[in-house]
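Next comes the chain:
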Amino acid sequence: MTTSSSNNNDNNSNQGDIESQVVQQQQQEQQQQQSSPPPETSSGAATTLRRNKSKRSEDGSVTSSSSSSASHPSNPSQVSSSASNNNEAAATAATNTFIYKPTKAPKETLLAIYKTGQYKAALPLNLLMVQSFMAGIYIAMAGHLYLAVGGGTLGAALFPTGLLAVILTSAELFTGDALVFVASVLGHRVPLRYLLRNWSVAWIFNFVGCLFWAAILAYWSDALQDIDGAADLAVSVALKKAHQPWANVLLKGIGANFMVCVGVWQATCAEEVAGKVLALWFPINAFVLLGLDHCIANQFLIPIGMMLGADVSVKELFWNNLIPATLGNVVGGGLLVGGVYWYVFDSMSSNASKQQQQQQQQQQQQSKEASPEEGLANNKTVTPKENHTTSTLTMRDSTLP
């Protein structure tokens, strides 16, 4: 018993000596760090290793303290540097965070319309012609589908496939460009000459695309004649559209392209294809069900009826339908959608900025008219709320002749 107690006393005395030596070493290291601090990483690693070697339990086993030293650094500079690094990482993560928005706000939609107008205005003539021809193909395809299923509700439900192809391929459809270019011209994003260039080329080559499908893919191929009742429906539709009063076609054209351009606006709001489909489908379906007149759709429906035997002359095609329908489409899509939303979302802010510019110009003129002495006197009596930069600028302006 005496031997064991003496051994315990020796162990305790040895442990006390070791702990006192460790404390002295730590004090010396702290003094050296204060006099000439080494790099943060090496000091942290050195103190961690020494603590791991020095810490022992009562039974003489070594205990690791790396986790405690990592979570509680001994050097205060390490705490500040880690905090600054964490702040920088958080700021970087905040700037790189992508916020998903399934739809655009109305003002953002108008800006997207402006960008579309600038893109369309910059198209070379050959690409504009090809894209206009393809838009006519898509609308004629939809008209062919309408006649093939017998018109009515089913035909109206399938007709939006043509407009959807136009939207997803950025084709140049005259009626959709009525919205884009009227808004872009009023917003001073596109000159007026590009509106006239785009509308004329798009209208002509939309007609070429519709005639191509009507003659080659619908008439010469006997595709409509092979479907029971489709050819008779095409003839009746052509006769009805070509023998309406001029004013009626004009008003129907306003309503048709108003609904088409509302669908285009809604499709521009959506960011994904599924959203564009839903946003575009219902307005296009509605205008077909309502029996309204879309000039590009009529560029297919009336000529295919004429090819199949409808008693319609070329003069009646243009004067009785295409001209009033085109004018109505410009009013309905260009003015009632493009012009209205330009006024709502852009012109008010434009007027406010113009008023601010006018006020600034008036202030500059007043400062120029003032004498140098008055300008210096005014600048000396600057209130505490005013900025010193503005006072210097007014002093410079007041000294101008």
